[in-house]
Structures are given as structure tokens and as C-alpha cells.
Amino acid sequence: MLFFHVFCRYVTRLAEQLLQNLKLAKKLDYAVEMALNKKLELEQESDAIRPKINVLTKQTRELQNSLAKEISGKYNNRPVYITGGV
User: Fold this and answer.
1) Any idea what the Cα angle at residue 55 is, between residues 50 and 60, rounded to 5°?
2) How far apart are CA 56 and CA 63, in angstroms?
3) Helices (H) and strands (E) in the chain, counts
4) CA 34 to chain centre
5) pTM over 0.70
6) Rounded Cα–Cα distance for residues 81 and 71 (Å)
7) Is there a contact between 57 and 70 (Cβ–Cβ < 8 Å)?
8) What pLDDT digit, counting tens, does each position of 1-36 carry?
């Protein structure tokens, strides 16, 4: 009889651990799904912003070049290089 009682406690504990693992697996599946949705959302946002970034980058380079020419003109047309640009 003692063996049966110990065996039942063992089976009960094992069943509880399996249920906990099942809950954790469901929670992790949900987290993975949310992460994939967020990734897709951020990729779409990045694709929407990329053309604006390209335009701003081009404008920044043009401003750097015109600034370099202005500075060069003030110093007897010496060459001027602006580093650390876009």
C-alpha cells in the first residue's frame, strides 16, 4: 500500500510539472508570435521611411559641398574637406 501511495504522489508531481511546461510552451509560442508581428511591422515602417532618408542624405551632401565651397572662397580658394559626413 505504501508503494502505491508514493507512486501516486510521484505521478501527481510529474503531471503538475508537465502542465507547467505546457503553460510555459504556450507562453513562449505567444511571445514568438508577437516578436514576429513586431518585426514585420518594423520592416514595413523602415521601408516607408527609407525614401525620405535617401532624400535627406542627398540634401545633406549637397549642403556639405556648398559649405565647403563657401569656406574655400573665404580662404583664397584653398581646398576644404568636411569630414564626418553622412
Assistant:
1) 120
2) 10
3) 1, 0
4) 13
5) no
6) 10
7) no
8) 767 778 889 999 999 999 999 999 999 999 999 999
Contacts of 68 (CB under 8 A, 6+ apart): 80, 81, 82
Q: Write the CB contacts of 71 (distance below 8 Å, at least 6 apart in sequence).
A: 80
Residue 71 CB: number of other CB atoms within 10 A? 14
Alpha helices in the chain (DSSP H): 2-74
The amino acid occupying position 23 is K
Express each pLDDT in 37-74 by its tens digit. Answer: 999 999 999 999 999 999 999 999 999 999 999 999 99
